[in-house]
Structures
1.
Amino acid sequence: MNRFHQEDFRLSSQAHIRIVGVSKRYGDHNALKQVDLDIREGEFFSLLGPSGGGKTTLLKMLGGFETPTEGDIYINGEHVNDVPPHKRNTNMVFQNYALFPHLNVIDNIGYGLRRSGLTADEKNQKINGLIELTQLSGLEKRNIEHLSGGQKQRVALARALVMDPSVLLLDEPLGALDKTLRDEMGLELRAIQKRVGITFVFVTHDQEEAMALSDRVAVLFDGAIAQVDTPRRLYDGPRSASVANFIGTSNIFDARIIAVNPSNIRVEIAGQWTMDLPRDADHSAEVSQNLSIAVRPERIAVNPTVNAADEFVGKAKVATVSFRGDRSYLELDDPYSSTRLSVVLLNLPNSDKPVPEIGDEAVFSFCQQDVILLT
Amino acid sequence: MISSLRRLRHSKSSQGILLVLPAVVFVLGIIGFAIASLLAYSVWTQDYMEIVYAPTLANYVNFLSEPIFSYLLAKSLLIALLASLVTVVAAYPVAYYVSFKVSRHKLLWIMVITLPFWMSYLLRIFSWKLILGYNGIVNSTLLDLGLITQPLEFILYNNFSVIITLAHAWAPFAIIPIFLSMERIDRTLLDAAADLGDTALQRFWRVTWPLTLPGVFSASVLVFIPIVGDYVTPQLVGGTNGTMIGNLMFAMFGKLNDWPQGSAMALISLVAIALTVMLIRWCLGVRKVEVK
């Protein structure tokens, strides 16, 4: 199914979590600045940003461990600003798992069920269902210290899911795992989310992880939301240079408006190329206004594979070449941007076109569709 | 000899052994010597000024056949248990407050709390005599307030005053291990418990308390063991009813000059203490908990 169709379908469903004008101050430090966010029912939603961006603070507010200095938080339409954690229908998977060291696997998972009013049989059934879902069979009586990182991760997940939360909060749950396990657990997490259909709010600083797992991602810088979008839209249409650089790699060029027409604006890129863009009604545009544009490294072609149809062609010198098997990363010294140009070339099988070498003069090109206009 | 030592010094694993060797030799030597001499003395007998070296179990038989000895031992264990209980119960909230409610300068707090314990043990016992005595602070205050017409005598020179004095004297030895076990608790565990529906009180009983049990156990043992054998406190504030096994042992090795009987008494106490410590451990339900 097409991701965009899924997106449109979801737009119609109501907001499950609504965050309105939320700020958090610690003394002089503004951890969150006027954050507005709607998270939908059954969504895998990521809060992505560098450390200190405020994403964990926001997650803790959803769990009830922090209260907003300003603004309101609604979950299922209920105002929850001052509802303590033990009275919320949210559950959290903590960064270091926070498993109880004095209890074994099964007692950790069943911890929250003690006062649930369920009979012993119902509890066991629930616990066993989750042990199966998280593939922990055979480890029921195991001591927490004797588990591997991945197993601890599963116990933490099962312990939270057994509570039937309406929202599951995950604070960098994969951060402590090594690379291979992280990818594997990430996909498993995604599959579990699909199966249980619970809204997941996932905090991470790893953009690849956020892109691979999420329905939508909110990018946070310095306590403010920079952009909220699907992974594909974030990648294809970042709205600012900081998002363009945080999500993947981007080549940023300076640009300037040289003419404003009723239906379009004409932009000059790096003093070198001109292009016409459809005029966005929301944005005021003036002649000689400065802009930035971004071009993704894989959209740039380099000779000898340079595309004859491309509008924008330039000359540069190959500064570095780094071979990574399926692809090669190049850096070009070009006269058009302040930094080196990053280019990614696919190493196709039986290619008779050799990858340029360091010191080669290269011709590069890209076309108008590859240009991302930043604000 | 020198060359083999040198060879030892060069092998890496033996460097560790060399480092702990002096301490091990010292400790094993001292303890081993003490236990060995106690064992030896306990099977000898005293004949006025002479030691009779013919091995016999007479001292042990004598201990068990004299009800007063067993009575004093049982009483000492009981008083020590009660004093440890009072100490730990009083120390726990203090440690809890500093560990969970104080955010800065925790060690300074601990130092200040234990400051009164830096002065001489004897002085502290005497100050309890001043407080609890016939003309002491408690009595004179109550007299002045008109609550009593003549001084209370039952508050000093009995088991009660012994327990109070001991509990106060050993408090820092209980506060510190309990405090350390609390410091080692990962605070996100309490967040996790709250997240899973626990109220503050439930969090305490289900997370904090079980995780501080090793500290409570260390505190109990650290306080219990020395109290069983204490003879200074009972002598000074216990009066005639306050006599404990330590006083008797002190007399055996002193005035009564019956070292063999004293040695047997010491060994029986040792075994009784070990059994009681195991009992405490069982009662607290301390499992092998690794708190990281």
Note: Chain B has one domain: 66-284.
2.
Amino acid sequence: MSHNHPETELHNPQSTKPPLDPHLKALENEAIHIFREVAAEFERPVMLYSIGKDSSVLLHLARKAFYPGRVPFPLLHVDTGWKFQEMIAFRDEMVEKYDLDLVVHTNPRGAAESVTPFSHGSALYTDIMKTEALRQALDAGQYDAAFGGARRDEEASRAKERIYSFRTPDHRWDPRNQRPELWNLYNGMIRKGESVRAFPLSNWTEVDIWRYIQAEEIPIVPLYFAKKRPIVERDGMMILAEDPRLELLPDEVKREEVIRFRTLGCFPLTGAIRSGAATLDDIISELETATVSERQGRAIDRDQSGSMEKKKREGYF
Amino acid sequence: MTAPAIANAALDDATAVAAYPAQEPVRATRDSRPLRLITCGSVDDGKSTLIGRLLWDTKAVKEDQAATLQRDSNGKQNDLGLPDFALLLDGLQAEREQGITIDVAYRYFSTDKRSFIVADTPGHEQYTRNMATGASTADLAVLLVDARVGLLEQTRRHATIATLMGIRQFVLAVNKVDLTNYDRARFEQISHEFKELALSLGVRQVTAIPVSALKGENVVYDGRASMPWYDGPTLIEVLELATTRSAQTVGFRLPVQRVSRPGESFRGYQGTVAGGSVKPGDSVVILPSGMVANVTKIVTFDLVRNAAVAGDAITLVLDRQVDVSRGDMIAAIDSQPMTGLAFDAQLVALQPEGIQPGKRYWLKSGSRRQRVQVQPASQLDLKTGKWNHADELPMNGIGKVHLVFDEQAIFDAYEQNRTTGAFILIDPDTNNTVAGGMITAKRAALGGIHAEESRVILSLPADLADQLMATELFAGRREDVEVRRITAGKAAEIIDTIDG
């Protein structure tokens, strides 16, 4: 019996949790398998860490995959400089708590050319501060594999992306010429300069993510939970109004509302939802009756349909 | 729940698993693991509409996605006022522009009973490779036919590929049944024909359902109002009750992905159990070295477990210092996989270059990657179901091949284990995945034909040879025979060389 086992140091203090249901267990097993495979096959893996709920799940799975060892690769945060303040605080807390290696990269053009979401518009801003910044960071670290938390249920072009998604030396994705992926046999063979993006959460849905966060008691940024917060309405979105850099336009008024966020990105581009969901149970039941998809609050996806595919071809995650 | 209770739950799991193959009518526990399925059908069969209908009626499509859809279809709607479902599924711009599906896409939906992963693959003949890809992980295949048209040559082709990839549960969705005025006799005729076809492929678990994907009849909601004569299940009911593949009844297999050595005191072997189950105290063999050890612990992040079963990602600790590295397999000592230098396999060629005889490829199976030489022997004619002699395989070709390795290879037959019996081939020149394959058997000797065995070369008139080859005796051993069609002059020349 395990409680008599002499090797008590192997017991994780969280072991009182009930076992996962078979569905989440299957998803977890698959993700752990992918983590281990990439870590074994590539020389310099890195994990893209965006601090959001999917990244939190990704990090938790990485810790599980390599237990009792440390996570054997660094986390990379591409910081646009416009993230929610609570996200940055949360990131630093996680790094400290779980003994992680963190690399933070911000595109120097942001400061040099004063690129902001207000001055350059969401499309150009995203291109420079996220896509270009990511390419810079991946090149600088000479990473040959990068884990991401993308899910196939998020968006139409992602539905066709492989779990090992091949990238050319300039980080391009060719959706029409992807390597076939059969069974759980991933092809990790690349030439120097080429890389692979690996997506352990490919087969997860948004509800799976939340149910797993609940079952595994995974810490997440408090912005996901409803609270009275200062907001301002802009372009049909409710934007959090707590960062001093947000300048109110003439007809805008700051007001308080009970809101939460369904996804987290750059605060000026991320719309809040009116919601009283203050616990994981609330969020899950809200989701089960939700009538809009999670990316609906993301300004960058709405330019045109197919816009995610275009961004991904250029190297966006 | 306390730790011992979890342990007991895990044990109960293992017991249930051990009893799996025996038919136990009493045990009606629903399998709540996600069901992976593949949908096959041509463009005109309404496949996109069927999947769109599944997503729509299970509420997997949200309002903003529907709005994007409405916008993209320029207000074009079907006669029920619903958006064009095909646009929902064809995610890539090229596909929307050309109105075709060019790649495997994965869709997710769920009911309160189970969740589903659909591999949505295009129906065109040239996309056999995509269907093989989608089928490789599927537990069940939904084959679509148009009720007005009935079975097509393509239906046979799809059913054959699905069977070859190991799928043993079929659903035949006889779609557009509304356009036949819900003709019962027509439906029954088609389903009878299909059951004959499935039986000829060795598949017994077949359900035929009359469906109108457009009107949503017998997909998620029943169609009793239009076809009171049908009292069978809806599509979603069949999917909810289907079984997922299980490799839990065979011998224990752990392909080692990596060795974990966080400190001097700990050495664990990490991987996903690919077959059977394991518990502390079990004796295992490490392949290919053949060294033997006992399992002392199964470590996971949550607790030290006292059993693990197929599908579990674990870390195994052994009782002694043995040399184990990535690519090795830890297996049950009393039920070992095959090891050897030569195997027979079936494979699907996935790239324009096809599979060239004698070329050396990389083969990846489990966590093991090694060099292999591939010799095609025959190719399946999907029209007739016959295997014809072939020296090379073109893209989308399905062939029987001989594999010859430089170093020991470790496999189970795919029929026995869909994980340890599967492999991919990688072209060392392009690094692309060029084939997906399934092991059928180990070969006794190198080079396909047993080198020392005595053989006879006959030179026969072509008509006599054809008659001989048509006999049952000959057909039964067709794999042992090499046949070349040449001129009489060339034959005389060859025989002269032998007489030399």
Note: The two ends of chain A are 45 Å apart (CA to CA).
